[in-house]
Amino acid sequence: GGRVEVLLIRELESSTWEALVRPAHRLRQGARLRFGNSNLRAEVAECADKRFRHLKFAGDMPLDEVMNELGQTPLPPYIKRPSGTTVQDDERYQTVYAREKGAIAAPTAGLHFTAPAIQSLLAREAKVVEITLHVGYGTFEPVRVDNIEQHHVASESFNISDDAARVINATRAEGGRVIAVGTTTTRALESAVNIEGRTEPGRRATELTIKPGFQFRVVDALLTNFHLPRSSLLLLVCAFAGRDFTLNAYRHAVAARFRFYSYGDCMLVF
Radius of gyration over alpha carbons of the chain, in Å? Predict the structure, then answer.
C-alpha cells in the first residue's frame, strides 16, 4: 500500500491513459490503484518508462466526473500546497478564455489577462485571436542533456480555427505584428506555417523543438513568464531574443525582485 500522485497525460484508448506517477517505483505492472472513497479503480497495464505508466481504469462513474470530484488542480511541484490545492488555485491557474478540456497544465502567460484587459485591447482596435492549446508534458520536461541539440520536446496538440488563421494571415499581409502570448502559442504558430509563409488552420500535433538558431516565421513579439533553468521554455526565449539578452533580462529581474515561474511576472520580448 501507500499513496501516489497520478497526473493523467493523454487517453491512449477507451479507459486507458498514459500517466506520470510519483513515486513511480511503487507501481509495477499489475499494481492496482484506488482513488479516494470512490469506486474508481485502475490497474497498471504497462510500465512505459521509469516515470510513466499506462493505467486501465474501471468504475461505475465516468472518469471525467471522478476527476472533477477527486482531482486537484495540477500545480507545478515547486508550488507547495501540503493540504492540497485551494479554491483560489482552481480559479487562478486557469485562463479566463479557457474552453476545451485537454491540457495538463495552464499556458501560464495567459494568466496575466483578465476579461477587462482583453476588452481594453479590443477597444484599442487590437485583434485578439484565440487558438486551442493542449499543453503537454513536454512543456515542463526539463532539459536532461548537456548538448541542447539532443533535447527534443514531446508532442503537443493544438487547433487553429479557419477564422484565427484568416486574421493572422491578413495581419501579416498588412504589415501588422503577431504577438504570441506564451511559448506554447509560439510553438503552435511556428508549427502551423506552410512553405509559403501562411498559417494553416486545423487540429494537429507538433514535435517542433525551438532552440537558438531557429528562424521564426510568424511570431514578431512574445509575452512570456520567467522560466525555470534547464527548460525548453527558456531555450525558446533564448532562440527568440538571443542568449545574452535573455540572461541579462533575467539578471535584472532577479535584482528587481520580480516573481518567477507560473504565478510570477512576465516580460514582452520584441
Answer: 20
pLDDT tens track for 75-91: 888 888 887 788 888 88
Q: Quote the CA–CA distance of 181 and 105 in Å, as a whole number.
A: 15
Q: How far apart are CA 180 and CA 193, in angstroms?
A: 14
Q: Where are the beta strands (DSSP E) in 89-200?
A: 132-134, 156-160, 179-181
Q: Is 173 helix (H, G, I), strand (E, B) or coil?
A: helix
3-state helix, strand, coil in the chain (%, to 5): 30, 25, 45
> pLDDT digit string (tens) for 47-66?
988 889 999 998 777 778 87
The amino acid occupying position 269 is V
> If we measure between CA atoms, which residue out of 188, 97, 189, 105 comes closest to residue 139?
105
CATH 3.40.1780.10 in the chain: give the residue spans.
Answer: 90-269
Which pTM does this prediction carry? Answer: 0.91
Which uninterrupted H or E stretch holds 12? strand 5-13
Q: How far apart are CA 3 and CA 23, in angstroms?
A: 9
d(CA 126, CA 93): 25
Superfamily of domain 5-71: QueA-like (2.40.10.240)
**Residue range(s) of every CATH 2.40.10.240 domain in the chain:** 5-71
- Domain range 90-269, its CATH number among 3.30.70.60, 3.40.50.720, 3.40.1780.10, 3.40.50.2300: 3.40.1780.10
